[in-house]
Amino acid sequence: MSISENLRNLKNELPEHVSLVAVSKTKPVSDLMEAYRAGQRIFGENKVQEMTEKWQEMPKDVEWHMIGHVQRNKVKYMAEYVSLIHGVDSLKLLKEIEKQAGKHQRVIPCLLQIHIAEEETKFGMDEGEAMALLQSEEVQAMKHVKIIGFMGMATFTEDQAQIKKEFQTLKALFDKVSAERPEIQVLSMGMSGDYVTAVACGSTMVRIGNSIFGARNYH
After folding, report:
1. Residue 172 lies in a domain
2. Is 218 among the domain residues?
3. Which pLDDT tens digits describe the chain residue by residue (219 residues)?
4. For 53-57, which contacts have Cβ atoms below 8 Å and span 24 or more sequence positions?
5. In contact, 117 and 170? CB cutoff 8 Å
6. Which domain holds residue 112?
7. Which of 71, 91, 182, 209 could link 23 by a cystine bridge, Cβ 3.0 to 4.6 Å?
């Protein structure tokens, strides 16, 4: 199956309200361009340097999503062009995004990463931390950051019931917050292995790599 066929099949399968982020980390620009020619415009990367190199080479109507854990000292390299940062997990990071976005007179949309998995290795805040962040005067005063939703990663397990429970937990938080805050519109959950469950649980954005580009290249 070619990249374009994989994309076509995925888009036929996904409901219209679900955005598809093509996770292109470690893939060459030639692969991304094949996806681009097939109509894909949203690409997700997890390393700022790699994403910036691709941004420089690719057409300028591409939306670049930072889906990996973000180090504060790397924000300045993507502040000029990034369309959405999925993994905001602290006030310190949000303050750095605000500062760097301000230098480019931009407003950068962000998702708060919520820790829903049972694994300790996954980043993210708990519900209380996220609510405190949203309600803090410091965050509400920010001019160059807009929090538009939540992102979460389920436990890496074959247990579909557990995955479903974790996604439902995040959906419940999303519903509670979006009822009071109309700007909270994006719920980014689901990857190649669990996106079907995520969509069934109410995801509005899925991050899919292997099912589009094939297995990852580790150099």
Report:
1. yes
2. no
3. 899 999 999 999 999 999 999 999 999 999 999 999 999 999 999 999 999 999 999 999 999 999 999 999 999 999 999 999 999 999 999 999 999 999 999 999 999 999 999 877 668 999 999 999 999 999 999 999 999 999 999 998 999 999 999 999 999 999 999 999 999 999 999 999 999 999 999 999 999 999 999 875 554
4. 54/24, 54/29, 55/81, 57/29
5. no
6. 3-213
7. 209
Instruction: Name the DSSP class of 200.
Output: H
The backbone region for 20, taken as left when phi is positive above 0, alpha when psi lies in -120 to 50, beta otherwise, is beta
- Pick the closest to residue 112 from 90, 138, 80, 135 (CA basis): 90
- Name the residue among 101, 123, 106 with its Cα closest to residue 114: 123
Assign residue 147 the CATH number of its domain: 3.20.20.10
Contact 205, 171 (CB under 8 A): no
